[in-house]
Amino acid sequence: MAWVLREAERYFGGQAVSKRFAERLGLHRKQQMACVCDNHCMPIGGVTAAPSPRPQPTEDIAVPARHKADTVWARPTGQLVRDGFGADDPIQGGLGDCYLVSGLSALANVRPDVLRDAIRQNPDGTFTVRFYKDSFLGLFGKSKKPVYVTVDGTLPTKDGSKPRYARGRDVQELWPAIVEKAYAKLDGGYDKVAKGGSPATLWQALTGRSGSMQLTAFKSGSRLFDDMKNALAEKRPVAASTNPVATKKYQDSGLSGKHVYAVLAVYERGGEKYVRMRNPWGYGEPGSDGRDDGVFELTIDAFKKKFPLSYYGG
Ligand SMILES: [Ca+2]
Questions:
Q1: What is the CA(196)–ligand 1 centre distance, in A?
Q2: Protein residues with C-beta less than 5 angstroms from the ion ligand 1
Q3: CATH fold of the domain at 208-312
Q4: Where are the domains of the chain?
Q5: 26: Cβ–Cβ under 8 A, 6 or more apart, which residues?
Q6: What is the pLDDT of residues 145-156, one digit of tens each?
Q7: Cα 255 to averaged position of ligand 1 atoms, centre (Å)
Q8: How many other C-beta atoms lie within 10 A of the C-beta of residue 294?
Q9: At what angle do helices 199-207 and 175-187 cross, to 10 degrees?
Q10: pTM value surpassing 0.90
Q11: Cα 195 to ligand 1 centroid, rounded to whole Å
Q12: 279 CA to middle of ligand 1, Å?
């Protein structure tokens, strides 16, 4: 059981996981708990980019082993931000970090100002992202200490032109790729980031405020709805995960197992409670609302059935 708890803790971003919790989720088989999309490579097109003038890699940020042979570091053209920070900006690439990309989307949804204040473009073309880490103060317990991570503008690509991992929906908008890269540097590499994590940990790193995770099975639909409604009203980001183990039950549902989605809004219509969500791929959704942009709504009952975990920023 010990390895299950270790794996589960890693998947959930280092949060302590009880045996009961792991059993409840069916975490009983040894497997990698990264997001389902770790083996998923998005078709990406339309990026204009110039190959990096420097020898590569320019920075020691490891990519997953299977990407080592065919990764080319390149410097895409574009701007850090275009038209502000939006929930629909971040698009996940071929890295299993749905928790990170959905975390960015959920944060941009409620606190674009946090992202604006955390990311700085430097005169030399590099970028600095401010994160917060725990620092221990003896009797006073933990406090958050800012940590500044500087990265240059080069990104992993396959052919020198298209970002291989996170990017903007507008491919000229660089902030999702830059924050992902800085987080990877902070965390010890893209390969570490791809091993799974929690959006609550990302939010904590960006806001300095502790987040939390809940098992939705322990709450009634209306209580869940109220929790999400209150969090969003307080401008705290919300996300939710499908089952990280029982992925087969999502076949033909329009949802992916082992995948984290941003919760953008909750609302009532015609006496029914709904949750509006977003797939970090920027496409792929249940039902047909006429626009396959990854944004869709579920009734609160369907949400509770499909999403055993929800995450809240502090
Ligand atoms: Ca849609």
A1: 26
A2: 289, 291, 293, 295
A3: Cathepsin B; Chain A (3.90.70)
A4: 36-197, 208-312
A5: 243, 245, 246
A6: 899 999 999 999
A7: 13
A8: 21
A9: 100
A10: no
A11: 28
A12: 10
